[in-house]
Design a protein that fits this description.
Layout lengths: L3 E3 L1 H8 L3 H9 L4 E4 H13 L4 H15 L3 E2 L3 H16 L6 H13 L2 E3 L13 E2 L4
Parallel strand pairs: 1-2, 1-4, 2-3, 4-5
Helix pairs in contact: 1-4, 3-4, 5-6
Length: about 130
């Protein structure tokens, strides 16, 4: 089983203690990681919330989730793969969100399975995608 990289919605599931996602992460034989881009997306979502208990609780959940997994930075190899991927997909008439492409490029360079509920990732050639919510 390849190592796993959690997309933003998978980290959100983990933050909400989704029972299947939590179990899969806990029992995965290889390290489960995420991307610095995912961290940025989660932080953006948190910063959009008004100050208060809900935001404070979610910020604590995010800190707990990120403290339990390595966060992969954007490297030169990932940047190269992002550029290649974006150009190839645009040539096919596909315009995916830039953050999704950075996350996909990270998973491809590391040869990790991308854990996500977002079906758009299945359009990326060579990317292994799994949904851990069921």
């Amino acid at each position: 089983m390849p190592a796993a990289l959690l997309d933003t919605n998978a980290v959100s599931d983990l933050m909400r203690d989704h029972p299947v996602v939590t179990t899969r992460v806990a029992n995965h034989p290889d390290p489960v990681i995420t991307s610095v881009v995912v961290v940025g997306e989660i932080r953006f979502g948190l910063n959009r919330l008004p100050p208060g208990k809900k935001r404070t609780d979610l910020e604590a959940r995010a800190r707990r989730a990120f403290s339990k997994m390595p966060v992969e930075p954007v490297t030169d190899a990932i940047a190269d793969r992002y550029g290649e991927l974006k150009a190839a997909l645009e040539a096919r008439g596909l315009n995916l969100a830039d953050n999704d492409l950075w996350i996909a490029a990270t998973a491809l360079i590391l040869n990790h399975t991308l854990i996500t509920r977002d079906a758009i990732f299945t359009q990326i050639p060579g990317l292994l995608v799994e949904d851990w919510t069921h």
